[in-house]
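Bug report (template v2)

What were you trying to do?
Predict the complex of my protein with flavin mononucleotide.

What happened?
Run completed; filing so the output is reviewed.

Input:
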Amino acid sequence: MTNADPATYPTTFTPYGDRPSDPEQVAKLAELARGGTTHEDLRDWLQLVDSIGELRVLEGVDWQENIGRITEMLTHSDHAPAVLFDAIPGAQKGFRILVNAQAERSRLAVSLGLPSDIGTWELMDEWERRRDETEPVAPMMVDGGPILENVLEGDDIDLLKFPTPLWHPQDGGRYIGTGDAVLTRDPEEGWLNMGTYRVMVHDSTNAAIFMSPGKHGRLHRQKAFERGEPLPAVVLVGLDPLLFLASALEMPYGQSELEWVGGMRGRPVECIAGRHTGLPIPARAEIALEGFLMHDEERMEGPFGEWTGYYASASREEPVFRLSAIYHRNDPIITGVPPEKPPYEAHKFRQYLKSANLRREMRLAGVPDVTAAWCHGVGGCQLFTAVSIKQRYPGHARQAGHIAAQCRTGAYLGRITVVVDDDIDVSDLDEVIWAISTRCDPERSFDIIRRAWSGPLDPAIEPGKKGFNSRVVIDATKPYEWIDQFPEAIGPTPEEKAVTRQRWSWILR
Ligand SMILES: Cc1cc2nc3c(=O)[nH]c(=O)nc-3n(C[C@H](O)[C@H](O)[C@H](O)COP(=O)(O)O)c2cc1C
C-alpha cells in the first residue's frame, strides 16, 4: 500500500544538489577522497561520496513500501551506490533519507579518511592501529551549530513530520532510528555511552528504544530505573557516518564513543548542551530527539525485521521514550540502516571493523600468533566467526576459540566459532568449511559452551525462554600432537599463485 501514484515514480536519478562547480573545490574534494582528512559532517561526507561517483538521489518514492523494498534490494546487490531519497510523497521536499551509505569498502574508507581504493587487510590494520593508539578527546561544548536551525518544543514536537519509512511490511511501526546513535549517561559512574539501538515511533511525542539486555545503554537504563528515575537520552537519527560507526561497534564498558571519535579525528566533536537533559548533542548532526526513557510507562514495541533475518523478538512491552525536544537542520537527513537478512549494509562494514576488533581483543587477552579473524557477514558478524593461528603449543587452538567466543566482540549472540591454521583464509567460507570438513574429528574437535549471553533476538531459542544460548567452538586446526604427519594440502602457496597469475594473466584472471 502506497500513497504515491506509480505513474509518478522516478525513472532516473536526480543529481546531488550540493555538488560544487568551483574547480578549486572540486580539486579539494578529489584530494579528500584520496584519504588523509576526515569530513566534518554528513553533508561533507555526501559530497565526498558523490565525487567518487557512488551517490544517487531518487525523488518521489513512497515511504509506505518502496523505500524499504528498494533498500532491501540495494543492500543485497554488489557495488550498489548510496541512495538519498528526496521529495517523498506526503513529506516536505528536502526532508531526506540516506540508505546503503557504508555498504561498500570505498565508502567506509571515506568515513575513516582513508583512500577509497584501500584493500581489505590494509583497512583492518589501520583500524586496529587506531584502536590501539587513540587517546580520548572530550567533546567541546559550543553555543550554536546547524542542529539549532530548528528546535521544536512543547506543542510543536512532531515526530510524524519526518518521512520515516515502514521498512518491512510486517513491522509493528515506523522505525525512525535504525542508523542512529543513542546517548545516555551512566547514572552511577557518570560516563557517556553512545550505542545504536532501534527506535520506533509511537505517535508525535512518544517513541520506543529497544536495547538488548547487557548493552551499555540498557545497563544505564537498569541503573536509573532501580533508583525509580527516568533515564535522560538523546537519539541522533541523522548523523555523521563516523559517529555512527563508533556507536554501532562494541567498545569497552566505560569508554565514551564520543570522546573516542574526538581522539581518532584529532579534534573534539563540537556539541551543544541539550536544553532538557544537558546531554551533549553534536552540533552538526542532522536530527536529534531529546527526552526521557520513562521508568513508569511501557508500550508495545515490535515486531521488527532483525539482523538475524527474522522477526524473532516479536513484540513486547518496552519503556516509553517521551520527547522533550526535537532539533533538526534545515532539509534534514535520516540515516537509515534497516536490518535485513544477513549480510546487509551493517554487516558489509562491520565485517572489517569487528574482525579487526576481534583480532585485537585476542592479542590483548594474551593469545599469541593470531594471524587473522573474520566475523562473517552471513552470520550477521556474530553467529559465525573464524580465527586463524600459527599453532605454537598444545591447547593453543582451544584457548583461541574460547576467547574469540567470549571476548567483548564475540560474546553477544554468537553461535559458531571456528579456529583454523594459518594456511586457511578465514574470510573465505569455502576454505573455512573445507578446514572443518577435513581437519575435524567431531568427538575431539567440538566444545560446547552453555548458558552464554543471548537475548530476545535469538531465532533458535523458544519464545518465552530467550536469554541464554549455547555455542560451539570448532577446533579445525591440524591436531597438534601429529601436526607434522598431517597430510600435506594440495595447491600453490599465495606467493606462487600471485606469480602464476601475473605470468598467465591472459588465461587466469
Ligand atoms: C544498524 C544497527 C542496528 C542495531 N540495532 C540494535 C538494537 O536495536 N538494539 C541493540 O541492543 N543493539 C543494536 N545494535 C547493536 C549495537 O549497536 C552494538 O552492539 C553497539 O556496540 C551497542 O553499543 P554499546 O556497546 O554501547 O551497548 C545495532 C547495530 C547496528 C549496526
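What did the reviewer find?
Residues 345-364 form the longest helix (20 residues). The first strand starts at residue 55 and ends at 59.
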